[in-house]
Amino acid sequence: MKLVHTKFRTLLATIMILSTSFVIAQQNFPHIKTFGYDYAVLSDRLDQAVWLAQRHDWIVGGGQWDAAVYNAVKGANPNTKGMFYLAYHSISYSQGNWMENWATNNGLNPEDIYYHYTVDTPVRILDTEYTPWPGTPGVVNIEQSNPAVIELVRRYDLPAGARLIVTDMDGATHPINGVPHLLLPIQGQRDKYYLFTDTASPQPVDGTSFPNFSGDWTYTTADDGEIIVPGYPNGWAPTAFDSRARVRWNHGWPGINVSSNVFRRAFEALALDRLAIPGLANTYMDGLFLDTYDGIANEAFWTSNLENTMELNPDGSLSEEDVYIIVRQDLADAKMELEVFLKQNISDSFVINVNAADVDMVYNWMSNIYMDYRDETMHLSIEYLITSTTNRNRIQRMVQMYDDMDNGREMFVRSQTNFAPPTEIPYNFIQFILASHYLINHPNAHFMFHKGNAGNYGGYPYGNFEPTHWHPNMEINIGVPIAKTSADYWGITNTDRFYEFASGSDYQTLAREYSNALVIAQFGSGGWANIGNNPVTHQLDGEYYPLLDDNTNGPAITSITLGQSEGVILLKSPVEILGINTEIENKIQIYPNPAKNILTINSLGQSIKSYKIYNTIGQEVLSNSSFNTNQINISYLNSGIYFLKLTSDKTETTVKFIKK
């Protein structure tokens, strides 16, 4: 082993703009941080877990990890982190049961987990979200009892007060056939409901004289987007259980009571339980993704009328806005208590990421929770930034997001095409999404590209992320943003932020310069039908090479024509000079990265013969021509960025690493 000092600028020029020849297992793609997002359960597809880990800094969702998933992810990329998905206010039946049992076992009242209406209260909820699949049997049994009990095969839990119409699919007659009835869920029996009359003063239906049930029946709801949840004691609900507040978001599941200490403690216990890795003692996931976070905090968007609850307004003296001021404060406090609890029990670096869904919710529709309580909602997930509906109004949101990230906020930003395969997605629109991500690329940003729509989270086919959750263009290292002397979009000179490239009566074009590329996105009126319309030709300041779908480049150009919702990534050098290699799965891996003293090499079955380390000006600072171990001592290197060139019996691989 020896220290050397030699010129190697030619090699450095190539190394500095390498893409996937940088090992993806540490900092996957240093020019942009990415995350993967899915509902598919990773324990059923370990190969997909590895695929995600090789490309992403975070994996969000994927069910509760077991030891096999955890080991597969960390083995593929020790730096990839896992974030467990957990709905917050629209808790599932199983989660509600878990918390109720926890409360009971700890001597607490499980009903304190929920808000309860004191009077009959209208709540918005869409009937299409709890009807059975069309043409399928939906009724299992109608019991001959008083009150009558109906057992359903359903898609989602039906809330108290839902109106049901049962239809015999075989043409037989029955007293309830085609007649609307009201339902009350039976506590502890998920599939069964009491039948009540659909009248001004609902009464239990006596089913003792009903004929025996037979044949296939189905059901529909008659709510037309709204139900009347019965109140207790000043409504028709027989018990407090029947008056639980239902907040419309995910199919009318019970709304949580963030004002309740019982809920807060129960949810903390639930989160800790779900974050634990079964089979690995004292091992947890790295973050928690709180979905539906804002649903309970808004008094108008989903119309839940919490001012009618006994917990928030027992004497009816508060206005609707007064009640929701309390709710928003309690929600922020509960989230902060949860974060403190999980950091104390897991790690100081643990992250809670609340989901704001659309970026407009952060800065417009629900700004009273996301901006007024900014410190409490610091880490955000934006599910919808760029979609086929995106228009020029989105630019202001991108400015606000960038400012937010400059002020310390970390964001997980997802964009989608809005159409799933086999719909053909124009490549210029894919480039529009990627270019928009590069426009607001920031140390506090993690991005996800999703070729599909909201109903296609699991890929196409379901659970196969490769065709829908990644685009190879993300592997091209476009370098780092560089400062321009002219004004940026904020009107400030000498920054490396995005700027207005061109504008017209029906479009606005943004650009940002990187050391290896120029990215451009043209915003217009938005909408799938308008993609590519009203093309405009823009002159460039020199020769560029447009990046193509297969990670090659087109010929050099001096102008570019873009229509609405189209973008382009223009390379400053052709791909051949970039040294692209998209066969990334079999590359040698190093860890940790950044490293302080020792670099460990995972050679993936290859025999490492020698290595050389270069600094950022091309000087060779360390080498070994007879390497026979899997570790390199870098303790006496100065802090900074280095490039490790490894020579094996099969290939040469250059890896970027950071010395702490």
Give an account of the 3D structure:
There is one protein chain. With 660 residues, the chain is an alpha+beta fold. Among the domains are: 9-13 and 587-659, Immunoglobulin-like (Sandwich); 113-243, Elongation Factor Tu (Ef-tu), domain 3 (Beta Barrel), CATH 2.40.30; 484-578, Immunoglobulin-like. Helix content is 18%, strand content 27%. It has eleven helices and 31 strands. The strands form seven sheets. The chain has an eight-stranded parallel beta sheet. Strands 5-6-9-8-7-10 form a six-stranded antiparallel beta sheet, with no helix packed on it. The longest helix has 26 residues, at 320-345. It is globular, with a radius of gyration of 29 Å. The model is unreliable at 1-27 and 577-586 (pLDDT under 50).
Itemize the secondary structure elements and their pairings.
Blueprint: H1 9-15, E1 35-38, H2 46-53, E2 58-61, H3 67-76, E3 81-87, H4 93-105, E4 121-124, E5 139-143, E6 149-152, E7 163-168, E8 181-186, E9 189-197, E10 217-221, E11 226-229, H5 261-275, E12 287-291, H6 320-345, E13 351-358, H7 359-365, H8 367-370, E14 380-384, H9 393-406, E15 411-416, H10 427-439, E16 445-450, E17 484-487, E18 493-495, E19 499-504, E20 507-513, E21 517-523, E22 536-546, E23 557-562, E24 566-571, H11 575-578, E25 589-591, E26 598-602, E27 608-614, E28 620-624, E29 631-633, E30 640-648, E31 652-659
Parallel strand pairs: 1-2, 2-3, 3-12, 12-13, 13-14, 14-15, 15-16
Antiparallel strand pairs: 4-11, 5-6, 6-9, 7-8, 7-10, 8-9, 17-18, 19-20, 20-21, 21-24, 22-23, 22-24, 25-26, 26-29, 27-28, 27-30, 30-31
